[in-house]
Amino acid sequence: PEFAVGDEVIAYARKDYVHGGTFAEFVTVPVRALARRPASLTWDQAAGLPLAGLTAYQVLKRLGTGPGDTVLVHGAAGGVGSLGVQIARALGARVIGTASPANHDRLRELGAEPTAYGEGVVERVRKLAPDGVDVVADFVGGVLDTTLAVLSEGGRHASVADNSVVGAGGQWMWVRPNGDDLTELGALADAGKLAVPVARTFPLEELADAFALSQSGHVHGKVVVAV
Fold this sequence. Notes:
Shape: globular
Largest sheet: 6 strands, parallel
Number of helices: 8
Structural class: alpha/beta
Number of domains: 1
Radius of gyration: 18 Å
CATH superfamily: Medium-chain alcohol dehydrogenases, catalytic domain
Oligomer: single chain
Strand content: 15-25%
CATH topology: Quinone Oxidoreductase, Chain A, domain 1
Strand order of the largest sheet: 5-4-3-6-7-8
């Protein structure tokens, strides 16, 4: 069998249809969703990897991201975006990331060229990539006009937060549980190419506080609930 009793595993533990999240000590998970816990990550870090990591990985892979590409990541300092920056770099791409100036040093550490979002962002991105960018990964929504203004001819784009991209030649994507993809992410982590920042860990009885922090919009890293 693929796994045995006592194996340390991680998963994006949702069924094949979108349903409620999981806050439980025990949960059944399809074996195809499982991956072994990366040895280099703590349990808190490993718990923060599946949902955000798979979201970023599947978007970038679906868009064919690879060496020679210049990628623009909208929301590069967020939980998904910060992993997306690292994954795109690991795939061989150059990365430009939008974030508030307070997060620019952090983005540089992750391997991105940071630029501020908001008014003037098109001009700032065009200054960094005069011929446009090859790939745009939108992890925040509401930025389609910017995407289309900086995308090179033949460029590819997708969003996880704005389904209107479909009418503009883009892809609207929803993450799927996938053990093989998760294994690839674990390998990147163990190779030192993917760090999973944890903002804070909450015990289960403080779940409401964890949601409040997550919804504040100013979290740098993953919010983890320990059962």
